[in-house]
Structure to design on (412 residues):
C-alpha cells in the first residue's frame, strides 16, 4: 500500500496494528456505530467521493478551475454499510451536475448490503427476521418493504438465468422434485422439479426449476424438456428419473439416443423410510454391496444376504427392492466409473438439503412465484457466478473416459 501524500510504501499489517492501538487508547470499539471500522469506512467513502468530484471538475481542491463549475460544500448523508450505518459528507458542485458513483444519489445503502439481504433470504429468513437481524447486528433500521424490494430485484436475473444457453451435451441429467407448501386456496404441498446436469467437465449444472401440481403427464414433461433442448442441449446420454408419469417417453421423444435410468438415489432414500434413524448407517453399509456388485448375478447374491439379515425386521424394504429390481438391474451394466456418477448422492443430497432448509424456514409461500424465487436464491448462493455450478466428483477423468467409450462419438 502506498501513502498518497509521501509516496512511501506502508506495511498494511503495521498500519492495522497502529490503528487498533490508537482505538484502544481512545476507548473506541472495533465495530458498531462510532467504531473503528465505521470510521475507516467513512474515510474510504469520502476519499473516493473526493476523487470522483475532482475527476468531474478537472481540478484538485483549492486548485485553479478549468471552467465555471467548482466545489460547493458538502451535504451529510447516512448510508447503510456492511459495518452498520455510517454518516458521510458528500461533496457538491455549484452547477449540480456531479453524479457520485460509489454512493449514488438517493441511494442509502451500499451494494454489499443487498448481497447480505439476498444471502439471508436464501437461508430461508423472512423479511421480518432479516429486518430484526440488521437491527440486532448492525444497529440499523431496515424496513420490510426495503427488504422485499431488494429480493424482488432478482426477478429479472432469475428470468435471465432460466433462459440462459446450456451446454451442447450432458453425460448425465437428473430430474428430482422438492415439495414446497404453497397457499393455493389452501396450503398444500406442491412439487417443484429441479433438473440437474453433469457437464463434460465434471461440474454440476442446475438447468432450471419448474413448478408442478402433482398431476404432470407426458405433455408437461415434453414442454419442459423441449425448452431445455431449445436452450442448446442437443444430446443427453443418461437421464435419471424416478417413476414420474410420462417422463421416460418424453425423454426419448426429445433425445432419441438417451438412456432412461431409474434413480438409484431415490431407491436408497426410500429404503430408509421404513427403518428407524438409528439403523440407517448399518442398513447403508449392508446395502452398498448390492448396488456396487460387478454383475446382476452378484447383486442378487448380495441382496439375498441383505434380505436374510433384514427381511424379518423390515419386510417392506425387501419388498421395495424386489418390486424395483427390473428397473434397477440395467444400472449394473454400466462401467463402475459411470455408476459412481449416476449413484453419487452427495451432490444431489447436499443441494436438496439447502433447498429444504430454506423452504422449511419459511413455512409456506403465498404463490408459486414466491417459492421459485426462494429456490432460485438458494441456487444463486451456491456459486459466485450465480449459475449454481460446482464440482460433481473429484475423480472425473476416469468417468469421462468411461462415458466416451460407452457413448462413442457423443462426448466431446
Amino acid at each position: 500500500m502506498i501513502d498518497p501524500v509521501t509516496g512511501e510504501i506502508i506495511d498494511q499489517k503495521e498500519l492495522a496494528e497502529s490503528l487498533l492501538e490508537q482505538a484502544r487508547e481512545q476507548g473506541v470499539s472495533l465495530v458498531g456505530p462510532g467504531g473503528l471500522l465505521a470510521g475507516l469506512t467513512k474515510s474510504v467513502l469520502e476519499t473516493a467521493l473526493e476523487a470522483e468530484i475532482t475527476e468531474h471538475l478537472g481540478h484538485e481542491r483549492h486548485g485553479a478551475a478549468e471552467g465555471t463549475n467548482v466545489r460547493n460544500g458538502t451535504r451529510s448523508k447516512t448510508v447503510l454499510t456492511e459495518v452498520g450505518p455510517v454518516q458521510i459528507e458528500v461533496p457538491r458542485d455549484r452547477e449540480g451536475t456531479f453524479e457520485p458513483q460509489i454512493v449514488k444519489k438517493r441511494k442509502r445503502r451500499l451494494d454489499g448490503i443487498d448481497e447480505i439481504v439476498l444471502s439471508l433470504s436464501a437461508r430461508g429468513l423472512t423479511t421480518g427476521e432479516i429486518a430484526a437481524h440488521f437491527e440486532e447486528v448492525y444497529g440499523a433500521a431496515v424496513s420490510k418493504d426495503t427488504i422485499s424490494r431488494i429480493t424482488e430485484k432478482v426477478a429479472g436475473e432469475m428470468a435471465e438465468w432460466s433462459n440462459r444457453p446450456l451446454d451442447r451435451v450432458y453425460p448425465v441429467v437428473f430430474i428430482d422434485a422438492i415439495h414446497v407448501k404453497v397457499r393455493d386456496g389452501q396450503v398444500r404441498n406442491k412439487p417443484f422439479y429441479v433438473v440437474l446436469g453433469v457437464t463434460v467437465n465434471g461440474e454440476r449444472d442446475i438447468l432450471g426449476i419448474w413448478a408442478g401440481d402433482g398431476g404432470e403427464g407426458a405433455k408437461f414433461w415434453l414442454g419442459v424438456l423441449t425448452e431445455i433442448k431449445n436452450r442448446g442441449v442437443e444430446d443427453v446420454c443418461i437421464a435419471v428419473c424416478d417413476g414420474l408419469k410420462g417422463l421416460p417417453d418424453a425423454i426419448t421423444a426429445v433425445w432419441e439416443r438417451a438412456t432412461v435410468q431409474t434413480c438409484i438415489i431415490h431407491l436408497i432414500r426410500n429404503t430408509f423410510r421404513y427403518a428407524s434413524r438409528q439403523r440407517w448407517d448399518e442398513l447403508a453399509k449392508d446395502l452398498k454391496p448390492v448396488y456396487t456388485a460387478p454383475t446382476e448375478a452378484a447383486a442378487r447374491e448380495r441382496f439375498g444376504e441383505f434380505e436374510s439379515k433384514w427381511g424379518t425386521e423390515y419386510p417392506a424394504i425387501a419388498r421395495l427392492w424386489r418390486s424395483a429390481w427390473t428397473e434397477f438391474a440395467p444400472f449394473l451394466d454400466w462401467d463402475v466409473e459411470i455408476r459412481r456418477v449416476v449413484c453419487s448422492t452427495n451432490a444431489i443430497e447436499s443441494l436438496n438439503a439447502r433447498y429444504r432448509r430454506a423452504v422449511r424456514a419459511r413455512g409456506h409461500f403465498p404463490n408459486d412465484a414466491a417459492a421459485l424465487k426462494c429456490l432460485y436464491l438458494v441456487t444463486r448462493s451456491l456459486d459466485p457466478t450465480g449459475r449454481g455450478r460446482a464440482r460433481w466428483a473429484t475423480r472425473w477423468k476416469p468417468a469421462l473416459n468411461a462415458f466416451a467409450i460407452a457413448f462413442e462419438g457423443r462426448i466431446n
Summary: The longest strand covers residues 169-184. The chain has 17 helices and eight strands. Residues 134 and 142 are 7 Å apart (CA to CA). Strands lie at 71-81, 84-93, 169-184, 186-198, 203-211, 235-241, 259-262, 390-391.
